[in-house]
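Final report, Chapter 2: Outcomes

The project's central promise was a pipeline that accepts a single protein chain and returns its three-dimensional structure in a standardized token representation, suitable for archiving and comparison. That pipeline is now operational. To close this chapter, we reproduce one record exactly as it appears in the project archive, with the input sequence first and the structure output second.
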Amino acid sequence: MIEIVEKKDTGRITNEMRIEFAAVSDNESFARMAIAAFVTPLNPTLEELSDVKTAISEAVTNSIIHGYENRGSLEDKVCMNCRLKGDVLEVEITDQGVGIEDIKMAMEPLYTSRPELDRSGMGFAFMEAFMDNLEVKSEPDIGTCIKMCKKIGISSWIDSEE
């Protein structure tokens, strides 16, 4: 299911997108391409685009590998909600998987709950490094929601000098 809505919000255009897809590894690349297309109107730099795609990739991979324990089930779903508020991208990646018991530990660099899969344990570290804000909420046996924000584009300092 893909849903795109554009509306005016107190003078600022807000664009929203919601995509729900099966928690299978092939959909990680789909999520990367979808977010790239979604932020295109903001004319991001290649570095900004790469940062956003990497963060989305890590969040979706975490849902598939850790949230759904890499089952590859078509019934398990990952949801990606995206919003453009001016020049700020807001993204939420949610799953209804096993959840995270200790979020603080899970966010430690090099920690992984799936060492048998040769996971590096750097997913949250990359999300935090490449986005301006990262928030993780999770409950065991309920699921996980990863919220990220990133300002796209050159700041308005150019306009202030006129």
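Archive annotation: The beta strands are 2-9, 12-22, 77-85, 88-95, 133-139, 143-151.
This record, like all others produced under the grant, will remain available to the consortium after the project formally closes.
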